[in-house]
TrEMBL record:
<feature type="domain" description="HTH merR-type">
    <location>
        <begin position="7"/>
        <end position="76"/>
    </location>
</feature>
<protein>
    <submittedName>
        <fullName>MerR family transcriptional regulator</fullName>
    </submittedName>
</protein>
<keyword id="KW-0804">Transcription</keyword>
<keyword id="KW-0238">DNA-binding</keyword>
<dbReference type="InterPro" id="IPR047057">
    <property type="entry name" value="MerR_fam"/>
</dbReference>
<dbReference type="InterPro" id="IPR000551">
    <property type="entry name" value="MerR-type_HTH_dom"/>
</dbReference>
<keyword id="KW-0805">Transcription regulation</keyword>
<dbReference type="Pfam" id="PF13411">
    <property type="entry name" value="MerR_1"/>
</dbReference>
<dbReference type="InterPro" id="IPR009061">
    <property type="entry name" value="DNA-bd_dom_put_sf"/>
</dbReference>
Length: 261
């Protein structure tokens, strides 16, 4: 069978492109961006042409283009927006900040759920989560802590739910993910989500303050993934060094830890 006629199931196309099946379905149903073929039993089948379309969609999203505006740009690179006018955040940022200020938890959760369906994780993190977190840091008074807590609570709940779903379809091994920051770090859960998207089943340890216990468990998982977004004490750095010797290339580290060498 020739390359042009090869057909891919939705899980295969997800692994090839890095776009979750739920997002691929949303791009089809809500935005008519992709129209896969169907088997006799109704299962979606994708071709190389679909792969190229998905990659083009990812390119536009990476530039900050809203998913609802991508369709008119597909196949028309010459009509793209002025690079200087491309937004640095998604249009949902301002409505989210308004919902947080009013403590409308239902609306916050609904918006977050929709974003994770419509956009790949990288775009959600770079063009939505980061701008919202930065804006919350500028909120004055005690309301900053309240709004940040609501946002973190909803985000972690949603990420945990997605990871649980990913675990049911995982088929590439079992990874122990360890967060060395305080429990409830959105960025730790985003790191965990990225590992889950590689097809690994996840066991998450959130808020580990003494990493030395990891040396006692030995290599009992297929991978060890360690996250920290802060400077670590010397004792923890030494533990990290020993863990790297023990796990070798089966240990994944967040950028802050990787810089320890």
């Amino acid at each position: 069978m020739g390359c042009d006629s090869k057909k891919y199931a939705i899980r295969e196309i997800s692994e090839i492109t890095g776009v979750k099946p739920v997002t691929l379905r949303a791009w089809q149903r809500r935005y008519s961006l992709i129209q896969p073929e169907r088997t006799d039993k109704g299962h979606r089948l994708y071709t190389q042409a679909h792969v190229e379309t998905i990659q083009e969609i990812q390119g536009w999203l990476a530039k900050g283009i809203a998913i609802g505006k991508v369709k008119e740009l597909l196949g028309n690179p010459d009509i793209g927006p002025d690079p200087d006018a491309v937004p640095q955040s998604l249009e949902q940022v301002e409505p989210m900040l308004s919902a947080l200020a009013q403590l409308k938890s239902g609306k916050v959760d609904s918006m977050v759920a929709s974003l994770f369906k419509d956009y790949p994780l990288q775009q959600v993190e770079n063009l939505f989560i980061a701008p919202v977190m930065e804006a919350l840091m500028r909120v004055k008074g005690s309301s900053r802590s309240i709004q940040k807590a609501l946002f973190q609570s909803v985000m972690i709940s949603r990420l945990s739910s997605i990871i649980e779903s990913e675990n049911k379809a995982a088929h590439k091994g079992h990874t122990l993910v360890v967060n060395l920051d305080a429990a409830g770090s959105v960025y730790a859960w985003l790191w965990c989500m990225r590992v889950a998207e590689t097809g690994q089943r996840i066991t998450m340890l959130d808020g580990v303050d003494d990493a030395s216990g990891l040396l006692e468990i030995g290599v009992t998982f297929d991978q060890l993934s360690v996250f920290s977004n802060r400077a670590l004490p010397e004792a923890t750095k030494e533990v990290i060094h020993q863990l790297k010797q023990l796990w070798g290339d089966k240990m994944l580290c967040s950028p802050m830890i990787e810089h320890l060498g």
